[in-house]
């Protein structure tokens, strides 16, 4: 599914839904053409529904309060991204079952910038967002919530497209995040480099032998 969103922040509030899980909503009764009401609180929208999801969650919500912000921050910590790239990445990670609207993503990015968690550079009318040192520290302080949100997204992906077990995907994302956070804390000593490399090599050997 191609996106042609501009990286100019959208005007106005309501945006059309773009999928069965639109803006966090698992309830397939919501169809395209329904407007978002109260779409975000500082860029995030909370959906409420009756019943429980199999993960012990209320049906009707993909992200708990504050989780979308963490997911967006985690994505730009991987590498700087444009707003439309973040939309596409989230869509891809849930197998196309949910596409966040620009009316959610761009206010979230603006809030991250205002909080000092993200920085933005602009070239030819396109904004590129990157994580700051404060943003990296915020991710580290909320690592459990980040891991939970990413694992939930991978569970949706696996349920709709097959692929690796969610536990494996969670562990892989956890390792990548741990490496990024450690590198952001400062230079590694020669001994630390050897220790980390040895741990990664040992894990690789164990996986090959499983």
UniProtKB/TrEMBL annotation:
<dbReference type="InterPro" id="IPR005149">
    <property type="entry name" value="Tscrpt_reg_PadR_N"/>
</dbReference>
<feature type="compositionally biased region" description="Basic residues">
    <location>
        <begin position="48"/>
        <end position="59"/>
    </location>
</feature>
<feature type="compositionally biased region" description="Basic and acidic residues">
    <location>
        <begin position="1"/>
        <end position="11"/>
    </location>
</feature>
<feature type="compositionally biased region" description="Basic and acidic residues">
    <location>
        <begin position="33"/>
        <end position="47"/>
    </location>
</feature>
<dbReference type="Pfam" id="PF03551">
    <property type="entry name" value="PadR"/>
</dbReference>
<feature type="region of interest" description="Disordered">
    <location>
        <begin position="1"/>
        <end position="59"/>
    </location>
</feature>
<dbReference type="InterPro" id="IPR036390">
    <property type="entry name" value="WH_DNA-bd_sf"/>
</dbReference>
<dbReference type="InterPro" id="IPR036388">
    <property type="entry name" value="WH-like_DNA-bd_sf"/>
</dbReference>
<protein>
    <submittedName>
        <fullName>Transcriptional regulator, PadR family</fullName>
    </submittedName>
</protein>
<feature type="domain" description="Transcription regulator PadR N-terminal">
    <location>
        <begin position="72"/>
        <end position="140"/>
    </location>
</feature>
């Amino acid at each position: 599914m191609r996106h042609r969103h501009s990286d100019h922040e959208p005007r106005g509030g309501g945006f059309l839904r773009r999928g069965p899980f639109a803006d966090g909503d698992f309830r397939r009764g919501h169809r395209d053409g329904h407007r978002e009401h109260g779409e975000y609180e500082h860029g995030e929208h909370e959906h409420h529904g009756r019943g429980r999801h199999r993960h012990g969650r209320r049906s009707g919500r993909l992200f708990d309060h504050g989780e979308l912000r963490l997911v967006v921050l985690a994505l730009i910590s991987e590498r700087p991204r444009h707003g439309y790239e973040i939309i596409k990445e989230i869509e891809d990670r849930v197998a196309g079952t949910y596409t966040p609207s620009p009316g959610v993503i761009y206010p979230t990015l603006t809030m991250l910038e205002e909080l000092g968690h993200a920085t933005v550079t602009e070239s030819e009318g396109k904004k590129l967002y990157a994580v700051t040192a404060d943003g990296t520290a915020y991710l580290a302080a909320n690592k459990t919530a980040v891991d939970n949100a990413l694992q939930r997204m991978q569970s949706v992906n696996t349920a709709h497209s097959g692929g690796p077990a969610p536990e494996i995907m969670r562990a892989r994302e956890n390792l990548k995040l741990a490496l990024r956070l450690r590198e952001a804390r400062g230079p590694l000593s020669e001994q630390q480099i050897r220790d980390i490399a040895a741990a990664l090599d040992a894990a690789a050997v164990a996986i090959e032998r499983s």
